Amino acid sequence: MAADFEYIVIGRGMMGAAAARHLTLEGKRVGLIGPDEPADRVAHQGVFASHYDEARITRTFDDNMVWSQLASRSIERYAALEGESGISFFTEAGCLFSTLRPGAEGYMARAVAVSDRRGLDVEVIAPEALPARFPHMRFPKDHYGYYEKRNAGHVNPRALVKAQALMAERQGAAIIAETAVSVMEADGRVEVRTAEGRCHTAARVLVAAGGFTNICSLLPAPVDMRATARTIVFFELDAARQAIFSAMPSTVVFAERDEDLVYILPPVRYPDGKTYLKIGGDSEKAAFDALGAIGDWFRSDGDLDEAAKLQRIAVSLMPDLDGVPTTSGACIASFTRTTYPYVGFTRSPNVAVLTGGNFVAAKCSDELGRLGARLLVDGGLSDGDFAAELAPQYLSS
């Protein structure tokens, strides 16, 4: 019996939508399966996605050569995708790292080394010059700035996914607004069954379900990845404060320990018509392995103690935020054992996985989607596409 599609991609998020678009660029018959964003987050009882937001940092400055190159490959295609789709998603606001002078080890030492090796255009700003360059900030004492002005800033993840899916559909993909609940091989094809009671078939399937990848029997064996809770805080800016922060870059501020960093997104207008400045951190307090627990987290306002901590840090760094109304939200970050995304086949040559953003993959999601497409079409990745680094690791079944 003939399959409905050559390829099915499960997951209409940043990686999955990109993979579908790249597959259709080669004229493949593609089905892209995943639910729409819920209209009511609190009442929704199904799966969620972490791209339900308006801003993610993008940059090539990174402490890892592979991640830096993945970002560069994606960023150089932003303009073409915006032009073809008619959807703007990239704001070149620049990206600033604030830190004590890097020592011989640590994130910033590695990032500077990668920047030097790649010849990235990253300006080093001395502590005494930072306040004049970025007057909205009160930097920690003796902090240096590492400023990537070009090809850096932030992307709108909702808009980026919309652009990817629109182009995939224009190029022949079928967008299937359903929730996959199982993937099984039968009669020489792969069957994807959905919560809506339908069955879709393909020669090969790519599971790109983010923090939900290990849920609902989508893979023959779970990948070695943890889906962890993250809390974010939004500062609602009035017109006067929007003016104060209007020229700020995306910003990452390091504390004494690398894991105590915070990241800050410039003012962005959200669907409710209000403008918010967003701050988040890298604190991990919970991990999830069940659908119900992940759903409960997405329906919440995050960890309120963590939100209060982030609010205090934000005001200490940006005193003009004092007294600004705040709200908090919940997100999921997926971390792999290797610290790289997983792009590879399962024990089945017809079921592959594309997942593991490791908290930094939004900026390079287009390239990761391209690699997922290459995997399905070619049966594997090349060394130039980081085959060894991106090889999935699995938990025992």
Automatic annotation (TrEMBL):
GO molecular function: flavin adenine dinucleotide binding; sarcosine oxidase activity
SUPFAM superfamilies named among the record's database cross-references: FAD/NAD(P)-binding domain
Stretches assigned to the FAD dependent oxidoreductase domain: 7-371
Keyword terms, alphabetized: FAD, Flavoprotein, Oxidoreductase
InterPro entries, per database record: FAD-dep_OxRdtase, FAD/NAD-bd_sf, MTOX
Top-level taxonomic group: Bacteria
UniProt keyword Oxidoreductase present: yes
Cofactor(s) for this UniProt protein: FAD
Protein name per the record: FAD-binding oxidoreductase
Species: Rhizobium terricola
